[in-house]
Design brief:
Elements lengths: L10 H8 L16 E2 L3 E7 L2 E9 L5 H17 L5 E3 L8 E5 L2 E9 L4 E2 L7 H19 L9 H14 L5 H17 L7 E4 L8 E4 L4 E4 L6 E4 H15 L2 H16 L6 H4 L2 H21 L7 H21 L4
Antiparallel strand pairs: 1-2, 2-3, 3-6, 4-6, 5-6, 7-9, 8-11, 9-10
Helix pairs in contact: 3-7, 4-5, 4-9, 5-9, 6-7, 6-9, 9-10
């Protein structure tokens, strides 16, 4: 999630960046349907078709990280996985680097995928099977990917440790202890091309689209992707399904999802037993990210920011309580 100061709607900035792509100037009202979380996303149209402008301040993400993300997306597209297709700006390339009155920004644009988010559909076995199958395909292609690496979970652990040592004011010893435990477990886990590679890291129902007529699945939002064990993606996706659907149905849903996954890629059963460890890693990452997000405060904050800060602090408290429990 971006720092709170970057969560304001800034359509002037969006329009300035959008001038680097072809767009329908008579339809700028569509920009009001923006979304800002880990990135700012503004929809726009060109020749009546919908596209998405995505941008982020330079101090939130490195140019290299975004370039590698775009390279991976294009690789998956060539392999036949349905993903957001990047759109080339007027000056060429895929990634725009722009100095603006609001600071330096990195921007890119994508064609909108077909269908609706899976979160809009009622649960059924066919959809869940296809969801697992799509993740299995993603991991199969990732295992064959030989390009320059993005950030790995070990680098993220290092950054979490640095933040905790230098900026965290509460529960510092507890968090450092939990980080050390995760690091020790990860260092002992087998790591090879079959089980460790570039994962989506946000493979949830909101980030997978389904087109009912063609029964086509499309994956979006690779902004959080990192090098990790593929099991991390499985754990996160199942955790999201558990939140969305009845607890009574979950064991059946899990079986269907895993069966779909196994039609495309192998399951590492020893790693599946370590789901709580992967959940702890994700909790630590969320906890530290949110601590960083809410750290900066200002006088006379708007009401939405006050409410958001309160909600985020409640999430921080809940995760902090979970961290007090041993694995």
């Amino acid at each position: 999630m971006l720092k709170l100061k970057h969560l304001f709607d800034n359509r002037d900035l969006a329009l300035m960046l959008l001038e680097n792509w072809e767009y329908d100037k008579n339809n700028i009202d569509i920009l009001k349907f923006y979304r800002i979380s880990a990135n700012a996303i503004y929809p726009y149209t060109h020749n009546g078709k919908t596209f998405l402008l995505r941008f982020i301040p330079w101090d939130e993400k490195t140019e290299n990280e975004m370039e590698k993300e775009l390279e991976f997306i294009q690789y998956l597209q060539k392999k036949g996985l349905n993903v957001l297709e990047p759109v080339v700006p007027k000056n060429g390339g895929y990634l725009l680097k722009k100095d603006t009155p609001w600071g330096k920004y990195l921007a890119c644009a994508f064609k909108r995928v077909d269908g609706k988010q899976l979160s809009e559909f009622e649960y059924n076995d066919e959809i869940i099977f296809g969801l697992g199958k799509t993740l299995g395909r993603l991991h199969k292609y990732s295992s064959e990917y030989n390009n320059v690496k993005k950030e790995s979970c070990f680098e993220i652990i290092d950054r979490m440790e640095y933040f905790t040592q230098n900026k965290l004011k509460e529960d510092k010893e507890l968090v450092l202890k939990r980080i050390g435990e995760i690091r020790n477990i990860f260092q002992k886990l087998p790591q090879n091309k079959s089980n460790f590679g570039l994962v989506h890291y946000d493979f949830e129902l909101d980030n997978v689209f389904y087109e009912e007529t063609s029964k086509k699945y499309s994956v979006i939002d690779f902004g959080s992707s990192m090098y990790h064990w593929y099991t991390m993606d499985i754990e996160q996706s199942l955790a999201n399904l558990k939140e969305e659907y009845s607890q009574n149905d979950f064991e059946h849903i899990k079986t269907i999802f895993m069966n779909g996954y196994k039609t495309e890629y192998q399951i590492f059963e020893e790693e599946i037993k370590l789901f709580p460890v992967f959940r702890r890693f994700d909790n630590l990452r969320q906890y530290i990210n949110l601590k960083d997000v809410v750290e900066e405060t200002w006088d006379n904050e708007p009401e939405w920011m006050v409410n958001l800060r309160e909600n985020l602090n409640n999430i921080i408290m809940e995760i902090g309580n979970n961290l007090r429990e041993d694995l």
